[in-house]
Amino acid sequence: MSQPIDASPLDALRAAAKARTEQRDAAKAAHAERRALEARPRRSPDELRAVVARGQEELAGSGIGAADEASAEQVVAWAVREFGDSIAVACSMADAVLPHVVAPLAPWVDVLFLDTGYHFAETRGTRDAVEQQMDVTIVDVLPLLTVAEQDEQHGTDLFGRDPGACCAMRKVEPLHRTLQGYELWVTGVRRDEAPTRSATPLVQWDEKNGLVKINPLAAWTLDDLLGYAAQHQVILNPLLNDGYPSIGCAPCTNRVAPGDDPRSGRWAGLDKTECGLHV
Q1: What mean pLDDT is reported for the chain?
Q2: Residue 50: helix, strand or coil by DSSP?
Q3: DSSP code of 242?
Q4: DSSP label of 266
Q5: How many CA atoms lie within 13 A of 199 on its CB side?
Q6: What is the CATH number of domain 44-252?
């Protein structure tokens, strides 16, 4: 006759997991309360431009790509000193490296996820894992129209006929609208991603969105990013290991052959290389 299984170790693990979740929820709620109490009016564009000028002088060193250019952590630390909680991190959920770099210096920072309605299941799964495992606050940024409403108003599969218009409605406008609640946003743009990004500065004024923009990973390569993720066991989108070095919406993202431009799978066959968020 089989012996009954001792449930106490399993019960202890469940209790510990519940306690960790409760602690995280309490810390997140305390941060939100403090942030609301300490909220300050958004500074004017001229004031923010002055901060950008100071930041460029402090962080750029001898210039873009110079050996004395500030590290990613130094850029984030500068941003936290200058902007406090008025910071948003944009994350496509191709990986969680950028939130992992920012969160230790800005716990419970808002991480903006552009929920276009067209994401791979793996991308949504990565988003959920980040929310559960990292000390950040996920903010789902939604378009004004659902996919069904867009199909009704503009025709089915607009992404195939006019990808620029689709990106404008499902990415550019929602992000612009959301960013008006912050003074600074953080991106994971890297100079090695595309020729259009080769001159990306660490700190810049984002004229289109009317706020400060920092690119702390600008000097990193893809190998740097993957190395950081391996060293710190950072969450990665499984598609990165399945032929997708650059991950966007599912209908507009193809696998890339080894050795090809990492972004060549985005809008393949079309005269389009950017969604419009960073141009």
Answers
A1: 91
A2: helix
A3: G
A4: B
A5: 2
A6: 3.40.50.620
How far, in Å, are 193, 227, 252, 253 from residue 139 at the CA level?
Answer: 26, 27, 23, 24
Measured CA to CA, the distance from residue 42 to residue 45 in angstroms comes to 9
CA angle, corner 92, sides to 35 and 154, nearest 5?
105
- What pLDDT digit, counting tens, does each position of 248-279 carry? 999 999 999 888 887 888 887 776 767 767 66
Angle, CA of 156, 157 and 163, to the nearest 5°: 135
CB atoms within 10 A of CB 62: 9
Phi, psi of 19 (to 5 degrees): -65, -40
Tokens of 125: 């799964």
Residue 213, C-beta contacts closer than 8 angstroms, at least 6 positions apart:
184, 185, 186, 187, 203, 204, 205, 206
User: From edge to edge, which strands make up the β-sheet containing 211-214?
Assistant: 137-141, 110-114, 87-90, 184-186, 211-214, 203-206
Which residues are known to be catalytic? 275
Residue positions forming the annotated binding site: 166-167, 249, 252
Lowest mean pLDDT among 15-24, 71-80, 148-157, 200-209: 15-24
Cβ atoms of residues 190 and 218 within 8 Å: yes
Would you list which residues are annotated within the binding site for [4Fe-4S] cluster?
Answer: 166-167, 249, 252
Task: Note whether 168 and 144 are within 8 A (CB).
Answer: no
Amino acid identity at 168: A
Amino acid (1-letter code) at residue 136: V
In this prediction, residue 276 carries a pLDDT of 66
Question: Quick one: which of 62, 91, 58 has its CA closest to 77?
Answer: 58
- What does pTM read for this prediction? 0.89
What's the CA gap between 70 and 63, in Å, rounded? 10
